[in-house]
Amino acid sequence: MLTAALRVYHWDRPTSSISSDRLEDDTLPFLERALAVVRARIGQDRGTVRDGLRAALEGIRPDRVEPLVKLLDDAATYTWPRGRAPAERRVAAFERATKSWPPLDPNTVRSILTDVLPGAGVDDPVAALYPDYPAFHRLTAFPEAYGAADLRDEYDLAQAQALLYSATSITLDASADLKHVVQHARLARLLHRLGPAPRGGYRFVFDGPSSILRQTRAYGVDFARFLAALVRARGWRLSAEISLRKGWRPLTFTLSAADGLRARGEALPAFDSAVEEAFARRFGEERDGWRLSREATVVEVDKALFIPDFTFTHADATTVLLEIVGYWRAEYVEEKFRKLAGVSGTHLIVAVPRRLAPRASELSGAVIEFRTRLRIGDVMAALEGLRAKTEGKR
Asked: Are strands 236-242 and 17-20 parallel, antiparallel or unpaired?
């Protein structure tokens, strides 16, 4: 990620809004040139590589140069001598030098360095003495598949992340990939409040523990880390309060899945297990009046969030949740059953492997056993049974 000093943003005072910088198509030739430079400088020190990148990026907007150099630096692989040896050699060189005063002539310097740094080469005394300092680290590799489009994507995302360093709260409306959203909010250690979103789905409000009493930026890096995972999801819209300076009126920063920010790496898997995937494919989007949605409902259980694998909604508005307990380790299964036992006030079907059926019998919801795949007929029978109970209460 970028540092706050490298962020570039656009501030609209009349609307009290702010947006992060994004690269245009006409910057791509400059990015290609920079990539060619870094690949041509394998074996050179970091300082030389950075200078070459700055030269390659001449002509691009000046405030964008250092952020791009930083991102290319992060993508590259550098090596340097580890351990105490470099520092010990510097001490030895300085101790030898103190025996000769006034300042040494070039021949004496060369003689000392040759003795202290055998085989290191002394054409550049500073580099020879400080090979462990970042400027003298050696470039050893750069990803072959990393292209100009990847660099632009990284820049756009990194600038949005850097703006979130100054966020004091975030409101997120999400209608899809809810399990992914909740999982990564938890990994980013974000406190949250949960409720329905005005346009459907759920609204998450993330803020720091002290934000009610005072403005805090303690969660800024956590917000940024969360954004890198959020951009892989679908159906979300984010609004953040950005406080650039203490005492300033907060500015509004908005993003959504439609903005097209991308993170490097694999896309989200469509399903968590083969059992889920096979069932969804065979059931289809709708069957006998029941519409199937994947991970579309959030349930709060004991101050935690639980997202069932599927939600079934009937034409008469009956809603039933389905959770498939897979072949996971014992600790995971126990935690899953603990959450399922806490679900109340909603229709729930729990599908379990046959070996877990005795354990699932303690649950209040409908339980379906399966061997290798979940049968459509068993699920339909459970759905209609719960629907009949609903009609009986109307």
From this structure: unpaired
